[in-house]
Structure to design on (588 residues):
C-alpha cells in the first residue's frame, strides 16, 4: 500500500517536471492568441483565447513562406552533399586498403577538435573572395563535409562482418557496387540520424547566417525572427506568433522522429547546437 | 559542424578494427583518392585553410575591401588583452559556464533518476524534457523574454507567490546572466538527461541489487555505487557542457535582443567577437580575440582530460 503510494507520487512528480518544461512554449502560444485585454495583465493570463488575428497580421508582415523555403533548401542541400561526402570518405577509410589510412583518419578527427569559432571569420573572408556573400550556397558549403558523420559512419562500417565484403568481391562486385547495394542500405539508420541533426541544426542556425547574409531573399527562419526581435522588441503578441511559426515545425518534427533523435543522442550521434 | 558529442563518449571507444587485404593495391589507392577527395575538398577549403587564416588575420590589419593589408605583429593581440570590454567578456564567459555546468550536472542527474522508468507516464515526461532541445533558440527565447518581463512576466508572478521581491531579470545587470543560464538549462538539459538515462539502464544490475541486499540506503547506494559507476558519463557531460557554454551565442543574442547588455552584462567573448567583426567591421581585432577564446577552450579541454584520467572510474 505504502509502496503504491510512493510510486503514484513519483509518477505525478515526473509528469509535473515534464509539464514545467512545456510551460515556456505554452506561454508563447497563449500570449500570441490572447485577446488584447489579456496581454498586459499581472498575474499573467494563462488560458487560451484563440484570437487568431495576431497570427494573421504577423503572417502577412514578413514573408514567412520564403524564409521557410530558404531554410529547407539550405537544409536539404547540406544533407545531400554532407551525406554523399561522408559515405564515400567513411567507406574509403574502412573498406579500401591504402597506405596512410591512419594519417588520413586522424586528419578527420583533428577537425572535431577545432572549435567552430576558429573558422567563422576566416570563412567569411573566403566567401567574400568567392563572391558568395549573401547567398544560400554560402550557408551550405562550410557544412559540405561532416567530420562527425564520417566518424560515425566509419564506426558503423567497422561493425559489419568482413565476410560480406569478401563474398561480394568473389562474386565480382566492385567498390561502387558494394557501397551502393550493400553498405548504404545497411547504414540507413545512421544516415537518417545524421540527416535529422543537420536539418535541426540548419533550422536553428543563427551566427553563421547572421554573418554571411544581409537580404531576406536568402535568409533562414531564425534570421527573420532575429530581425523582428531587434527591430520591434515591444510587439509581444506579434513576436510570440512569429516564434510559434518557427517552433511548431520543430515540435512536430520532434514528435514524429523522437525515436531516431533519442537514439542519436544515446549513441553519441547527437551534435549540440 | 559544432563540436563532437561522441568522440570521447565511453561507449564509442575501441571498436574492432579490421582491414581488408586486396591484391590490386594501386587500383585501391585510386579508389581511395576518388572517394576521399570530395570530403577533403570541403574540409580543406572550409576547415583547414580557415584555421590557418584565423591566425594570419590576427597578425595583419585586414579590412574587407581594402587594397593592401599591413602587418600588425602582436598589436591586435596586445590591444585585445588590454581592452576592458574584452576582459569583462572573458569574466562573463566563465561566470556563465560556472552557472550552467554545475546546474546541468545537478539538474540532469536529479531528473534522470526521477524519470528513469520505462512505463508510458515516464516516457511522456521524457518527451517533454527533451522537446526544448530541438526548438530554435530565438523562437523559444521570445517566450522566455516575456516570462522575464518585469511587469507582466510569469517569473515575477512565481516570485510573488513565494513572497520574494520582484526582479528586473534581463533588464538588470546582475540578473541578466543568471536569466540566460536558466534559459540554457531549460533548452539543453534534455540532452544530458537522455545520456544519463541510457547510462543508468546499462549499469550492472547485480551490483545495485547487492547494495540493497546489504542494507544500503537509497542515499548511500547513489553516492557509493551508482555515481561511481556513472562517473565516465558524468565526466563526458561535464566536458561537453563546458565547451558548449564557451560557444553559447544564440540565446545571448536573443535574450539581450542583440545588444549583449545591459551594461555589457551578457557580452560573452563569442558575442564580442561577432560584434567586433560584423558591427564594427574590425576583422583582425575580432580574429585576435577568437585566438584567445580558442586557446582557452583548448587549455580547458586538456586540463579536464588530465583531471578525468585521475578522477574517473572506468569499469
Amino acid at each position: 500500500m505504502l509502496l503504491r503510494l510512493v510510486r503514484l507520487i513519483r509518477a505525478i512528480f515526473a509528469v509535473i517536471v515534464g509539464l514545467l518544461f512545456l510551460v515556456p512554449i505554452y506561454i508563447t502560444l497563449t500570449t500570441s492568441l490572447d485577446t488584447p485585454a489579456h496581454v498586459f495583465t499581472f498575474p499573467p493570463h494563462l488560458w487560451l483565447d484563440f484570437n487568431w488575428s495576431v497570427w494573421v497580421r504577423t503572417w502577412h508582415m514578413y514573408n514567412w513562406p520564403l524564409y521557410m523555403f530558404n531554410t529547407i533548401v539550405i537544409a536539404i542541400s547540406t544533407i545531400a552533399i554532407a551525406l554523399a561526402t561522408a559515405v564515400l570518405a567513411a567507406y574509403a577509410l574502412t573498406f579500401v586498403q591504402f597506405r596512410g589510412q591512419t594519417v588520413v583518419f586522424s586528419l578527420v578527427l583533428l577537425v572535431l577538435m577545432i572549435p567552430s569559432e576558429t573558422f567563422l571569420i576566416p570563412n567569411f573572408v573566403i566567401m567574400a573572395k568567392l563572391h558568395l556573400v549573401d547567398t544560400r550556397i554560402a550557408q551550405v558549403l562550410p557544412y559540405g563535409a561532416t567530420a562527425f558523420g564520417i566518424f560515425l559512419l566509419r564506426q558503423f562500417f567497422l561493425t559489419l562482418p568482413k565476410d560480406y565484403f569478401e563474398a561480394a568481391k568473389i562474386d565480382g562486385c566492385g567498390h561502387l557496387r558494394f557501397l551502393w547495394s550493400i553498405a548504404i542500405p545497411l547504414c540507413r539508420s545512421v544516415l537518417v540520424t545524421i540527416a535529422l541533426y543537420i536539418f535541426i541544426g540548419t533550422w536553428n542556425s543563427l551566427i553563421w547566417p547572421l554573418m554571411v547574409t544581409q537580404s531576406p531573399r536568402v535568409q533562414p527562419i531564425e534570421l527573420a525572427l532575429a530581425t523582428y526581435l531587434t527591430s520591434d522588441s515591444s510587439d509581444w503578441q506579434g513576436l510570440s506568433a512569429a516564434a510559434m511559426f518557427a517552433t511548431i515545425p520543430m515540435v512536430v518534427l520532434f514528435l514524429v522522429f523522437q525515436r531516431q533523435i533519442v537514439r542519436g543522442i544515446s549513441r553519441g550521434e547527437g551534435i549540440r547546437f | 559542424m559544432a563540436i563532437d558529442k561522441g568522440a570521447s563518449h565511453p561507449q564509442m571507444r575501441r571498436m574492432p578494427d579490421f582491414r581488408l587485404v586486396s591484391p590490386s593495391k594501386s587500383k585501391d589507392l585510386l579508389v581511395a583518392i576518388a572517394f576521399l577527395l570530395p570530403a577533403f575538398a570541403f574540409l580543406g577549403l572550409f576547415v583547414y585553410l580557415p584555421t590557418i587564416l584565423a591566425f594570419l588575420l590576427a597578425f595583419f590589419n585586414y579590412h574587407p575591401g581594402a587594397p593592401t593589408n599591413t602587418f600588425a605583429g602582436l598589436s591586435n593581440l596586445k590591444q585585445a588583452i588590454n581592452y576592458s570590454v574584452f576582459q569583462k567578456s572573458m569574466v562573463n564567459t566563465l561566470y556563465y559556464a560556472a552557472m550552467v555546468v554545475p546546474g546541468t550536472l545537478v539538474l540532469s542527474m536529479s531528473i534522470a533518476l526521477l524519470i528513469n522508468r520505462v512505463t508510458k507516464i515516464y516516457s511522456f515526461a521524457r518527451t517533454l524534457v527533451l522537446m526544448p532541445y530541438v526548438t530554435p533558440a530565438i523562437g523559444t527565447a521570445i517566450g522566455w523574454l516575456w516570462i522575464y518581463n518585469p511587469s507582466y512576466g510569469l517569473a515575477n508572478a512565481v516570485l510573488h507567490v513565494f513572497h520574494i521581491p520582484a526582479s528586473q531579470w534581463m533588464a538588470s545587470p546582475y540578473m541578466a546572466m543568471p536569466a540566460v543560464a536558466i534559459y540554457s538549462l531549460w533548452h539543453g538539459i534534455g540532452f544530458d538527461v537522455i545520456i544519463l538515462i541510457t547510462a543508468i539502464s546499462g549499469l550492472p544490475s547485480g551490483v545495485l541489487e547487492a547494495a540493497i541486499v546489504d542494507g544500503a540506503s537509497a542515499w548511500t547506494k547513489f553516492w557509493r555505487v551508482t555515481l561511481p559507476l556513472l562517473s565516465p558519463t558524468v565526466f563526458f557531460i561535464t566536458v561537453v557542457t563546458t565547451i558548449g557554454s564557451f560557444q553559447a551565442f544564440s540565446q545571448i543574442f536573443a535574450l539581450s535582443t542583440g545588444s549583449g547588455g545591459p551594461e555589457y552584462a551578457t557580452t560573452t567573448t563569442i558575442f564580442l567577437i561577432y560584434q567586433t567583426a560584423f558591427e564594427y567591421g574590425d576583422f583582425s581585432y575580432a580574429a585576435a580575440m577568437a585566438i584567445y577564446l580558442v586557446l582557452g577552450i583548448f587549455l580547458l579541454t586538456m586540463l579536464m582530460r588530465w583531471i578525468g584520467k585521475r578522477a574517473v572510474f572506468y569499469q
